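[recover] target loaded
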């Protein structure tokens, strides 16, 4: 998610912004320099980018959201996985339906200190289906393939049996002398969340510890903690872990690669996403550092089982592994059927914009309408956009131009910012999150009432994973897919899902915007442009959103009704006007080449880079 820099007046007159009460304790965060690309892959490789940083004002701590201001006093205690206590179970029959008749406290095969943490810290009483299904096999040392929908307590399904394995004296594990459990996570956000859950589980196991390593954090601090004490549970992203295996040497003379030679329990979480993000090679290198598969235990969790995962299964799991399928899928379908299943507790619908003129205004209309949907005002909305730059533009538009507070989260933000913004929304009782696909999987935001997807998702699977941010822990939720006319072809990819036309939203968009929304948009558009009174940061954000739109949709032509790249440029140029720009932004010649837009009519070339290089040669 992203934030903006504090404005400097420079003596020029500006239109006054809506007055917005400040939230206390606003953090000052770092921000990565911006580029024109979308969001893909950045979360996986962010640790390799060494970009300049500058101070910025945290947009998650500013703005007025009327009745929907983020509630910073909400307790974060139950914010990681389904946190289900006795009182909640009695009040919410839907939540009870995901639970089994197996109580943690009644099991004799769970350590008493683990039970104490489960009851007092995690506030859990009964096992969910995936937890009960995996526990016996995993706690006895068998390899397990676990399949479950998001929001069903999957993290505890591997953490608890993994902990019980290393607590068993027969395992030979001695705290601090080696790493007992290695958990691989596709993203930093998910790694942090898993580690937090693990830390709570270890509350009363005083000699045991948890450590998280991921790109964007200090490698020196990682090594310092390793030297002090090797963690019982290490949660890592593949890129950072591979970096340590190749380059880190501990103070006792051991290489980190040698340390992993004695780690006999591996967990691959969100394995399908690990592979989608291109980590197949890293996984192979990491597992080569571990004991052979016949001498270690592997727990693999994935929502879908495509052919690529079957190969990973073959390479890393013993032939007699236990398959725990809580999605209801047999084998051999390549994961297609699994990915067809969405949460039955989420009411899905879609709308196709009547025309492109509503592209920007529809976001305002739909979000403000969704803000009023819950009678008790506890509305918590996650809105997805196709690229990080589009997230940034709409978040800045809402926060700075409209005076409606939203939390902004995407891969172009610094890791400290992302951690704080993610936690802010996680513990909030109500609020709005504008995000890219960094929030599509794994991260648990409790009590999300609605997911809105603006624009074309990367795939059917990604649509389903985004939808999984609501309807979690047995609760109900709603999902709305908003498509432009040229994106309606995507509905063919959703065959088999119950996703009817949303009549309410269709009626909303069939009429002109309300006078209030029309004025909000008009006033906001006056802030965008190259005039002296315009907001330079908002204008810059609009220009970057334009470039990101071009880059994303040039790669999606076959999945839309767009005929060619010239039509993409035409749509983008029209969009630039709708975003308030006086004319389509110019793009660096090098970027045009990367997008494959050389010679395409309608593109404005920015020759400043060439002119600067000529001046340098003089």
């Amino acid at each position: 998610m992203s934030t903006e820099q504090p404005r400097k007046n420079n003596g020029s007159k500006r239109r006054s912004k809506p007055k917005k009460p400040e939230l206390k304790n606003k953090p000052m965060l770092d921000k990565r320099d911006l580029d024109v690309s979308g969001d893909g892959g950045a979360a996986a490789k962010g640790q390799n980018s060494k970009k300049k940083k500058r101070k910025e004002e945290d947009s998650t701590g500013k703005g007025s959201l009327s009745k929907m201001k983020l509630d910073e006093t909400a307790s974060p205690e139950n914010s990681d996985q389904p946190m289900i206590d006795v009182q909640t179970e009695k009040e919410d029959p839907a939540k009870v339906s995901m639970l089994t008749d197996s109580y943690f406290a009644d099991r004799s095969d769970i350590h008493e200190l683990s039970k104490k943490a489960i009851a007092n810290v995690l506030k859990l009483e009964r096992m969910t289906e995936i937890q009960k299904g995996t526990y016996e096999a995993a706690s006895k040392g068998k390899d397990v393939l676990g399949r479950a929908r998001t929001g069903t307590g999957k993290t505890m399904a591997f953490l608890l049996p993994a902990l019980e394995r290393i607590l068993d004296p027969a395992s030979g594990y001695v705290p601090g002398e080696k790493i007992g459990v290695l958990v691989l996570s596709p993203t930093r956000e998910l790694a942090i969340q898993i580690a937090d859950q693990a830390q709570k589980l270890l509350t009363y196991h005083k000699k045991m510890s948890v450590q998280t390593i991921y790109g964007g954090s200090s490698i020196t601090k990682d090594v310092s903690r390793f030297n002090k004490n090797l963690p019982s549970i290490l949660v890592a992203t593949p890129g950072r872990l591979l970096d340590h295996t190749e380059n880190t040497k501990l103070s006792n003379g051991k290489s980190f690669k040698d340390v992993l030679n004695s780690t006999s329990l591996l967990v691959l979480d969100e394995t399908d996403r690990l592979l989608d993000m291109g980590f197949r090679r890293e996984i192979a290198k990491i597992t080569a550092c571990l004991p052979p598969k016949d001498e270690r235990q592997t727990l693999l969790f994935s929502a879908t089982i495509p052919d690529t995962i079957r190969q990973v299964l073959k390479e890393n799991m013993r032939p007699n592994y236990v398959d725990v399928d809580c999605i209801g899928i047999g084998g051999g379908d390549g994961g297609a059927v699994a990915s067809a299943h969405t949460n039955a507790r989420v009411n899905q619908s879609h709308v196709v914009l009547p025309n492109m003129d509503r592209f920007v205004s529809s976001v305002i209309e739909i979000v403000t309408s969704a803000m009023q949907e819950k009678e008790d005002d506890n509305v918590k909305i996650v809105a997805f956009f196709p690229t990080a730059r589009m997230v940034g533009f709409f978040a800045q538009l809402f926060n700075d131009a409209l005076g409606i507070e939203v939390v902004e989260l995407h891969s172009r933000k610094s890791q400290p910012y992302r951690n704080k913004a993610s936690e802010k929304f996680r513990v909030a009782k109500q609020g709005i999150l504008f995000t890219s696909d960094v929030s599509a999987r794994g991260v648990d935001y409790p009590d999300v009432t609605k997911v809105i997807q603006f624009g074309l998702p990367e795939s059917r699977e990604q649509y389903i994973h985004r939808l999984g941010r609501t309807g979690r822990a047995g609760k109900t939720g709603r999902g709305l897919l908003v498509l432009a006319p040229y994106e309606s072809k995507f509905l063919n990819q959703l065959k088999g899902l119950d996703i009817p036309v949303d009549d309410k939203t269709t009626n909303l968009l069939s009429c002109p915007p309300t006078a209030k929304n029309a004025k909000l948009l008009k006033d906001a558009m006056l802030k965008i442009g190259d005039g002296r009174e315009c907001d330079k940061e908002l204008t810059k954000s609009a220009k970057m959103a334009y470039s990101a739109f071009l880059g994303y949709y040039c790669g999606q032509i076959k999945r839309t009704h767009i005929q060619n790249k010239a039509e993409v440029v035409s749509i983008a140029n029209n969009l630039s006007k709708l975003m308030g720009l006086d004319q389509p932004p110019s793009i660096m010649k090098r970027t045009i080449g990367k997008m494959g837009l050389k010679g395409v009519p309608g593109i404005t070339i920015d020759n400043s880079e060439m002119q600067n290089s000529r001046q340098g040669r003089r």
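[recover] notes: The CA atoms of residues 366 and 505 lie 7 Å apart.
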